[in-house]
Amino acid sequence: MRGSKRGSLVFEWKTTFKNVVVLTGAGISAESGVATFRDNGGLWAEHRIEDVATPDAFAMNPVLVQDFYNKRRAQLKEVEPNAGHRALTRLQQELDGNVTIITQNVDDLHERSGSHDIIHMHGELRKVRCRACATVHQWQEDCFQETACPTCGRQVVLRPHIVWFGEMPFYMDLITQKLQVCDLFISVGTSGNVYPAAGFVTHVQQVGHAHTIEINLESSEGVSYFAEARHGRAGDLLPALIDEILSVKVA
Ligand code: APR
Predict the structure, then answer these.
(1) 15-47 b/e with 16+ CB inside 10 Å = b?
(2) Closest residue (by CA) to atom 29 of ligand 1?
(3) Measuring from each residue's beta carbon to the nearest atom of ligand 1, which residues come in under 6 Å?
(4) What is the pLDDT of residues 177-195, one digit of tens each?
(5) pLDDT at 15
(6) For the whole model, what pTM was predicted?
(7) What positions does the entry give for Zn(2+) binding (predicted)?
(8) What does the pLDDT read at residue 247?
(9) Is 27 annotated to bind ligand?
(10) Given ligand 1 and candidates 102, 194, 215, 226, which is best to mutate, with the most ligand atoms within 8 Å of its CB?
(11) Cα Rg for the chain, rounded, in angstroms?
């Protein structure tokens, strides 16, 4: 039997799962060279959240905040999707059912891996939003305070289209709908420190009968809520898990 001591219903997988929800965090992009937040040398070891990731930070020092996101946006040109991203794309292509990716990540590696049905609950680095006309723009290059909004033409109005601490995540109604009908919930590369994402596993258990699996380098804060936990690199464990889900294996 694969998986941890908590076991799993391996032999029923292929026939049962029609609505898979995969929650991803920074750990799935780590093997692509994108820093996580809370690991050694992570972003929050280098930067103070209150300096770069709150509305107050942007009000107090917009140049510092724009620079922080400009650098992360520029890095996207140097990184590529990894085996973890590609495994999820394969699941979407081959499973006879729905696979929704809810990501806390603001990078575009799921899209570049060929995935669809991606919900960016914390926003996207390759978008900026106008605080005057509320238009959201696709954005590849740096954005500065003097950069004019392409729609309303005003300056000192564009901000990163990112959910900062103290702000509501995006698409929560759609996310709740997906969790409501989910029959397999897989959490990948997230430490389980940030809500509401960290509460999705208990939500799917309360509302339904979903099987729940944690894939992470180490135990997350919420590991005890999962029916099954597999610890190691997502780039190794996810392709193996997807093989299991897509192929009938008798335990
Ligand atoms: N494979 C699997 N897991 C990994 C890997 C890997 N190669 N590398 C690191 N991890 C795990 C770490 O062990 C850690 O538990 O990924 C997790 C990353 O945790 P965080 O850095 O806390 O990132 P995340 O959970 O995505 O953060 C949530 O917090 O800072 C905010 O808005 C930001 O979306 C972010 C949210």
Answers:
(1) eebebbbbbbbbbbbbbbebbbbebeeebeeee
(2) 194
(3) 25-27, 30-31, 36-39, 42, 104, 122, 189-191, 193-194, 216-218, 220, 233-234
(4) 999 999 999 999 999 999 9
(5) 63
(6) 0.94
(7) 130, 133, 149, 152
(8) 85
(9) yes
(10) 194
(11) 19
